[in-house]
Amino acid sequence: MTAQMLDAVSPEEAAKIADALRGTEVGSAHCAISTLPNGDADGRANLRHLDTHRGIKFTRVFVQHLEDPQIDGVVTINFFPLGYSEKAIVEIGDEDGDRFTILLYGLTGRVEILDGELRDPNDHMMRNAVGDKVDDR
Fold it and tell me: What whole-number distance in Å separates Cα of residue 26 and Cα of residue 17?
């Protein structure tokens, strides 16, 4: 976390700063996901993996700082100290084709779980905190 991110006036601005810093050195440390315990009841760190042996997998992940959905690799969703995050959509599916969609609201960090996949992901990603359509994320 840098002073610039703490001074950001919006989640969007903080996400742009975080995206610009990804993979660069800040002070004496390299930007990466913390491996320290985070207060989780089981003492786990922040990085988690989905057990795909049970037939469940991430099908698509949309995040505010990326234009296109991600279908493989590592994806990060940025959460900020004041309780907000960047907007995101996480779709999870199984081998039978059943899907669930998790909507993450940026201003509040609230999560909504929907049965099925979204027909138009931009309906969530292209709305501001009030719910009005916007031209960019």
Answer: 12
Helix (H/G/I), strand (E/B), else coil: 26: strand
For 122-135, how does the pLDDT look when each residue is reduced to its tens digit (9 = 90+)? 888 887 766 777 77
Q: Tell me the residue ranges of DSSP E strands in 1-137.
A: 25-26, 29-30, 56-63, 88-94, 99-104, 111-115
**Residue boundaries of the structural domains of the chain:** 3-125
Max CA-CA distance within the chain?
48
Of residues 15, 9, 13, 8, the one with CA closest to residue 79:
15
58 in Cβ contact with 73 (< 8 Å): no
22-38 pLDDT tens trace: 665 555 455 566 666 66
> Is 115 within 8 Å of 136 (Cβ atoms)?
no
Q: Please tell me what DSSP assigns to residue 129.
A: T
Joined tokens for residue 104: 């993450």
